[in-house]
């Protein structure tokens, strides 16, 4: 027992390639990333996540489904099923689901639509949602060329950009009581503050 909150990072090669323990020394980080994994593959191995009995689950999955030309509905259903199963197995865990990362520009609208559905669904299983699109994509919707050599896997600069969003998101997740409420999007929070001040 390390006494540190156990955080499982689960997903495909983008997760597998992360040095999570090095980057988050305050956590007991467990890397359950598997190269080439799809939502279907992830769902089949969620018992690995449950076996760790984590305090927090950080999920990134879906880009290989996109590459395999699965339909939007199928990809969304896969991510949603994974979230439902994680929540059922870990009723008190914090869950942070991240948007599917951009790839080539030809995938942009497809991936955006997947992410829109996952964002809307996350709160129903008391999961937090982190939108990585603004920091990872260029205007065309392509993964920033500075962050990748193959328009899919991330280089050091790509992981730095990701961490610039993930670190504060995890801080917010851990500052909340377990499973209490989703992270509010900045514009929504501003709107709520405006409404409150106008009461």
UniProtKB/TrEMBL annotation:
Domain SGNH hydrolase-type esterase, chain residue ranges per copy: 9-161
Polar residues compositional bias, start-end: 190-199
Name of the molecule in the record: GDSL-type esterase/lipase family protein
Pfam families: Lipase_GDSL_2
Signal peptide (from-to): none
Region Disordered, residue ranges: 177-199
């Amino acid at each position: 027992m390390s006494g540190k909150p156990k955080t499982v990072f689960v997903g495909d090669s983008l997760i597998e390639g992360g040095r999570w323990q090095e980057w988050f020394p305050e956590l007991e980080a467990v890397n359950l990333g598997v190269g080439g994994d799809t939502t279907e593959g992830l769902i089949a191995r969620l018992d690995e996540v449950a076996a760790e009995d984590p305090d927090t689950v950080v999920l990134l999955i879906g880009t290989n489904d996109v590459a395999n030309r699965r339909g939007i509905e199928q990809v969304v259903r896969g991510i949603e099923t994974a979230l439902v199963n994680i929540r059922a197995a870990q009723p008190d865990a914090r869950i942070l689901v991240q948007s599917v990362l951009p790839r080539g520009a030809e995938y942009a609208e497809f991936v955006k639509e997947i992410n829109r559905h996952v964002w809307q669904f996350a709160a129903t299983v008391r999961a937090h949602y982190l939108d990585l699109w603004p920091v990872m994509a260029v205007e065309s919707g392509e993964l920033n060329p500075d962050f990748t050599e193959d328009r899919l896997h991330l280089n050091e600069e790509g992981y730095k950009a990701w961490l610039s969003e993930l670190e504060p998101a995890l801080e917010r997740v851990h500052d909340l009581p377990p499973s209490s409420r989703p992270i509010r999007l900045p514009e929504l929070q501003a709107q709520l503050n405006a409404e409150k001040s106008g009461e």
